[in-house]
Amino acid sequence: MLSHTQLSSAMQRAITLAQRGPSDDINPQVGCVIIDGAGSIVAEGYHAGSGSDHAEVAALKNLDPQLNPVALTAVVTLEPCNHTGTTPPCVVALHTSGIGTIVYGQPDLGQHSSGGATELFARGHRVVGGVESEATARLLRGWHQRTEQTRGRVIAKWAQSLDGRLAAADGSSQWITGAKARRHVHLQRALADIVVTTSATVAADNPALTARDEHGDLLVAPQDQPLPVIFGTSDVDNNAAIHQHPALAWRGFDRAPQFSGRDLGSQLTALAEYVDGAPRVLLEAGPRFTTAVLAEQLANELLIYTAPLLLGGPHQAVGELGVPTLTDAHKLTFSSIHRLEADTVSTLRKDH
Q: Do 44 and 138 reside in the same domain of the chain?
């Protein structure tokens, strides 16, 4: 398996390639390198502007067809696109090529083009996101501004049964979803700048909240791991696993920052002080906190993992939202739905 240093080096090369493309194009600057099992570059490409091959396709055209694609890793500055525009989807090109592992820096924010990484993950590729997160965010900053996009968002995530329960009547909840869905959660953590939980969740579950691979090792390097932040007024044990999170030492913290949670809107906004730019915030907490965030309509996206189970009982994923009638319902739009073995993962966005 390639090291974090090797992936970082490849991503830095991809960033350099991306900068060869036009800086004022309607499309983003994107670079791609393909590396072998030793970390050596075997092909590379970049997007030369609207209408030209995307970086992944350009790199694939330079790839020696005699190489075994399963042993190769494509390293791309931006999540491969999942739609047909002036060119076909890069997801299809990568899947057809047989490349074993896909690594990318920033998620695609487009309503129609996003979801490529999950599509590749669902099709059996190994996928790692968030590598060289700060550098790839800087690369795309101008394009995001020109296209009036912001990478900053609050994502509420939970796993549930088909009837919207987090646990059985006796409280048992590990595991509602299967292994592939749980691996996908770690990919989403790696893409986040900040992961938020509560003091109650820490007391009950003692989560580490690191982005890890299938072997339990760090999925991305400490500098690319999400910063863990706690909401809640209860004291958190100094020995809690969350305080050992590698992103804390990297950023100069001796323990996870904590907010009271009494003013959710302003305190979620205040998380921007920890990030250079608008943060991507992933919420991993219990139903009380999630419901409070949803009731105040503070989440831009929902990430819902659903298992084909019927549980019934009192442990609902979402509680009272203060919606008295159907016309007052919180309206959302499906961005993507993917099958992850027996489970599904749905991404929904706030309907403005």
A: yes
In the structure, how many helices (H) and strands (E) does the chain have? 10, 13
* Closest-CA residue to 28 (of 83, 106, 118, 103): 106
Which of the residues 44, 56, 79, 284 is marked catalytic?
A: 56
Which of 146, 179, 214 is where one domain is finished?
A: 146
In this structure, is the dihedral angle defined by the CA atoms of residues 71, 76, 82 and 88, taken in order, positive or negative?
Answer: negative
132 is catalytic: no
Beta strands in 212-331 (DSSP E): 227-231, 258-259, 280-283, 301-307
3-state secondary structure 153-214: EEEEEEEEECCCECCCCCCCCCCCCCHHHHHHHHHHHHHCCEEEEEHHHHHHHCCCCCCECC
Instruction: Assess contact for 74 and 101: CB atoms under 8 A.
Output: yes
**What is the pLDDT averaged over residues 90-104?**
96
Domain identity same for 329 and 281: yes
CB 240 within 8 A of CB 258: no
pLDDT digits (tens, 9 = 90+) for 155-170: 999 999 999 999 999 9
For the chain, the domain total comes to 2
Same domain, 12 and 50: yes
Q: What's this model's pTM, rounded to 2 decimal places?
A: 0.94
The C-alpha angle with vertex 326 and arms to 325 and 331, in degrees rounded to 5, equals: 125
pLDDT tens by residue, 49-76: 888 999 999 999 999 999 999 999 999 9
User: Residue 148: pLDDT above 70?
Assistant: yes
Span 170-204, pLDDT tens digits: 988 888 999 999 999 999 999 999 999 999 999 99
Domain that holds residue 328: 153-350
- State whether 159 and 98 are in the same domain: no
Residue 172 and residue 127 share a domain: no
- Verify that 160 and 129 share a domain, yes or no: no
Rounded to an integer, what distance in angstroms lies between the CA atom of residue 258 and that of residue 38? 42
Q: Is the pLDDT of residue 87 over 90?
A: no
Same domain, residue pair 198 and 308:
yes
